[in-house]
Amino acid sequence: MAPYSPVGKTRERIYRFVRRRLELGRPPTLREIQAEFGFRAVEGVRKHLQILVEEGRLVKDGRRSRGYQLPANLSPATIQVPLLGRIPAGNLSEAVGHLHGSILVDTPMPAGSGAADEFDFFALRVEGDSMLGAGILSGDIVIVQVQSTARSGDIVVAMVGDEATVKTLRRTGRRVELHPENPAYQPIVPEPGDRLRILGKVIEVRRYLDARRKRRR
User: What is 6-69's CATH topology?
Assistant: First the structure.
């Protein structure tokens, strides 16, 4: 599942570059960003920055030449993670990996650890009711920490072949199964020839009661 289009990847790289410079107290100029990423014209940089402003990831102060700032509610322990389409919580379905925006996430900051990175996490909107018993409803957004392994009992986003799902991981010896939390569904038991790949562990569930706000995410 490719999380970004080429344009989305470039914008994420620009955001990370600008954010690092802002955190160091050295906001970059448009020309510096242009040189860093090899744009032919500064207008291309300006368009990417404008979209980042519209997404709420940057704030623009038009009174200053280097007027881009981080939002006031973005603390060192808060990062913006990409929202990547939808993930089924029922029968397997092809994963949608297009970028649908971003979400603010407060991340744990263990003592001695470095700052969390945006690419350490992603978010997905769930479709289906197979995880009702775990408190995950259709339409909820799950925040996922990127990792390729998980313990038995963890709720994970996993790929089986080219299809993705969110389920509870169960291990019995060398056997791995993906279990729903709804008796109406059967566990997914990968066949020997199937390729099971864990994309990450679900660490948070978001639910928006205001339907209008939900549609904007």
Answer: Arc Repressor Mutant, subunit A (1.10.10)
